[in-house]
From TrEMBL:
It comes from the Bacteria. InterPro entries: CobW/HypB/UreG_nucleotide-bd (IPR003495), Hyd_mat_HypB (IPR004392), P-loop_NTPase (IPR027417). This is CobW/HypB/UreG nucleotide-binding domain-containing protein. Residues 4-162 form the CobW/HypB/UreG nucleotide-binding domain. PANTHER family: COBW_HYPB_UREG NUCLEOTIDE-BINDING DOMAIN-CONTAINING PROTEIN, HYDROGENASE PROTEIN ASSEMBLY PROTEIN, NICKEL CHAPERONE.
């Protein structure tokens, strides 16, 4: 089975791109399933079910979504193997922008949209910087000049990735994307022993553990203060 990790900021069009890409993969007799990761809520699993795609979802709730992802990915892979999938796609809702869910040896796809702001490529850090493929969406509602400027910003953050323009509504570009996902040399039956491409946030603070009171006496663990002195 191949495993592909999709990530991207909320509302960037990840689910639409994945659905259209799976349509193209089905035409190649490739059985695909999806596991959706989110923090508090998602009904994207209903869209996958309506399309006849095997799907599971996981909500991290009060837990760090990045830790939730990495704590469950081995079981997720086992679910894909048990369901005899040729390709398993995980979709994560942008996580915290500080991290990336990508795994070494596993292909990572970042979905980002033209309307997210000209500086967004710099803001989302390793989620974009560490991706193998960058999919830019919503190009049909901006000008050619805006598309080129945004694409240039993406390339300045990740010059080695394959950058593609895809329309998640019409499916334009998804067949080309589908041809980049399957790789016989990337077949896996486990991710045990593999490593993340980027480390998770280090240590914990009292607020990670449920503290709600404000004040220095309630701040413990990994605490960093801003420098607010005049310059």
């Amino acid at each position: 089975m191949n495993l592909i990790v999709f990530s991207g900021p909320p509302s960037s069009g990840k689910t639409s791109v994945i659905l259209k890409t799976i349509e193209a993969l089905k035409g190649q007799d490739i059985k695909v399933g999806v596991v959706k990761f989110d923090c508090l809520y998602t009904d994207d699993d209903i869209l996958y079910e309506k399309a006849g795609i095997p799907v599971r979802k996981g909500l991290s709730g009060a837990l760090c979504p990045d830790h939730f992802f990495v704590s469950n990915i081995e079981e997720v892979v086992k679910w894909g193997i048990d369901n005899k999938l040729d390709l398993l796609i995980t979709e994560s809702a942008g996580l915290c922008n500080r991290c990336s869910p990508y795994i070494k040896e596993i292909k990572g796809v970042c979905v980002i949209d033209n309307l997210s702001g000209i500086n967004t490529p710099k803001k989302i850090g390793p989620m974009l910087k560490a991706a193998d493929i960058v999919v830019i969406t919503k190009g049909d509602i901006v000008s050619q000049a805006e598309r080129e400027v945004f694409s240039s910003k993406v390339n300045s953050v990740n010059p080695t990735a394959i950058t593609m323009h895809v329309n998640g509504l019409t499916g334009q570009g998804t067949y080309e994307l589908s041809t980049l996902l399957m790789d016989e040399e990337k077949e896996i039956d486990s991710v045990k022993g593999m490593k993340l491409r980027f480390p998770m946030p280090s240590a914990l603070c009292s607020y990670c553990l449920g503290e709600t009171r404000i004040g220095e006496q309630f701040q413990m663990g990994n605490v960093r203060k801003m420098d607010l002195e005049d310059r």
